Automatic annotation (TrEMBL):
GO terms for molecular function: iron ion binding; tRNA N(6)-L-threonylcarbamoyladenine synthase activity. Required for the formation of a threonylcarbamoyl group on adenosine at position 37 (t(6)A37) in tRNAs that read codons beginning with adenine. Is involved in the transfer of the threonylcarbamoyl moiety of threonylcarbamoyl-AMP (TC-AMP) to the N6 group of A37, together with TsaE and TsaB. TsaD likely plays a direct catalytic role in this reaction. This is tRNA N6-adenosine threonylcarbamoyltransferase. Its main location: cytoplasm. The gene is tsaD. Its EC number is 2.3.1.234. Binds 1 Fe(2+) ion per subunit. It comes from the Bacteria. CDD domains: ASKHA_NBD_TsaD_bac. It holds the Pfam family TsaD.
Length: 353
């Protein structure tokens, strides 16, 4: 089965073709990736310091057909080779989701192929199965740590489509905390990666920031206080005229150190509580080097395994939607295309069943 995946939930337009045959034959899942194309709108939104929903939808409309053509060319496939179309049905920006949904339903109608509405987070949490290197694939059940711009969740994954929420953020998502803190330090949106880089030049010990909910006993997170603690230090430095490069590096270091410690601690507790021995890290913040190093160190020390998506599949992309769609299709979960159904998007949608 060859599945076309379409991702348009936020500010990336991603398309990909995935062939399920290698997976069905027990071969590594990444061998099924036939081709992909991605356009990031980051530059367009940068002037506004965040994603402008209306601009996002309009840009998805402009990009989706050229990206489909690019994907087909890279895959050496024709439209007729597609067996099913998977698209991100939610959660995300309503207008942006509508573009993907309308396009997917229209194309599926004209090709007379089935359609699969995929949960964006399911795409993220299954993407570590596409890794080319690292430990062998995690066995079900495993724990997934989803850390993106919109979500921070620990999930027990019992099987495809069987997800139990173990804990989540009560306020800002980890990526949101990164982006807001980066903005306080004068970095462009989305500043997660730049903040992480800035932190690499910082000194340990100059600032001690709070570890929110570290000992709360549950698996929930809170990051808004951490960002406020950084804001207070920035205000102090402004007043004392010490807001220089060293300050920025040191406070960035303290921020990353605190956030990584809390996330690592909660992820370890989730493994302990569930008895799982495999941890999967997914979502944009999963690209963070400090978090990867800390998690790998802690998990490996116990003799357990941590699984990452390939770096280029950490942020939003069409491959993860095509892959999740293919696995759903193999479970016979699909529907006929429906042009009325184009409007059946789920901007808010819980993954856990
Ligand atoms: O998963 P994603 O592409 O989009 C959402 O679904 O939210 O995640 C984007 C988030 C942004 O907040 C971005 O700043 C953050 O991931 N991010 C990082 C890094 N790379 C991306 N945060 C920290 N360190 C990174 N290296
Ligand atoms: Zn995402």
């Amino acid at each position: 089965m060859i599945v076309l995946g379409i991702e348009t939930s936020c500010d990336e337009t991603g398309l990909a073709l995935y062939d399920s045959r290698p997976w069905e034959q027990g071969q590594p899942a990444h061998l099924g990736i036939l081709g992909q194309a991605l356009h990031s709108q980051i530059e367009m939104h940068q002037d506004y310091g965040g994603v402008v929903p209306e601009l996002a939808s309009r840009d998805h409309i402009r990009r989706v057909i050229p990206l489909l053509n690019k994907t087909l060319k890279e895959s050496h496939c024709s439209l007729e080779a597609i067996d099913a179309i998977a698209y991100t049905q939610g959660p995300g920006l309503a207008g942006a989701l509508l573009v993907g949904s309308a396009f997917a339903n229209a194309l599926a109608s004209s090709l007379k192929k089935p359609i699969i509405g995929v949960h964006h987070l399911e795409g993220h949490l299954l993407s570590p199965l596409l890794a080319k290197e690292g430990p062998p694939h995690p066995e079900f059940p495993f724990v997934a740590l989803l850390v993106s711009g919109g979500h921070t969740q620990l999930m027990l994954v019992k099987g495809i489509g069987q997800y139990e929420l173990l804990g989540e953020t009560v306020d800002d998502a980890a990526g949101e905390a990164f982006d807001k803190t980066a903005k306080l330090l004068g970095l462009d949106y989305p500043g997660g990666a730049a903040l992480s880089k800035l932190a690499e030049g910082g000194q340990r010990g100059r600032f001690e920031l709070p570890r929110p909910m570290l000992h709360s006993g549950d698996l929930d997170f809170s990051f808004s206080g951490l960002k406020t603690a950084v804001l207070n230090q920035v205000k102090k430095a402004e007043a004392n005229n010490t807001l220089n490069e060293n300050f920025r590096q040191d406070i960035a270091f303290a921020f990353v150190e605190s956030l990584v410690e809390v996330i690592t601690h909660k992820a370890m507790s989730a493994l302990d509580k569930t008895g799982c021995r495999d941890l999967v890290l997914a979502g944009g913040v999963g690209a963070n080097r400090q978090l990867r190093a800390a998690l790998t160190g802690m998990v490996n020390k116990k003799g357990w395994a941590v699984h990452y998506p390939p770096l280029e599949l950490c942020t939003d992309n069409g491959v993860m939607i095509a892959f999740a769609g293919a696995l759903r299709l193999l479970q016979k979960e699909f529907s006929p295309p429906d042009l009325q159904g184009s409007f059946d998007i789920k901007p808010r949608w819980e993954l856990s069943s």
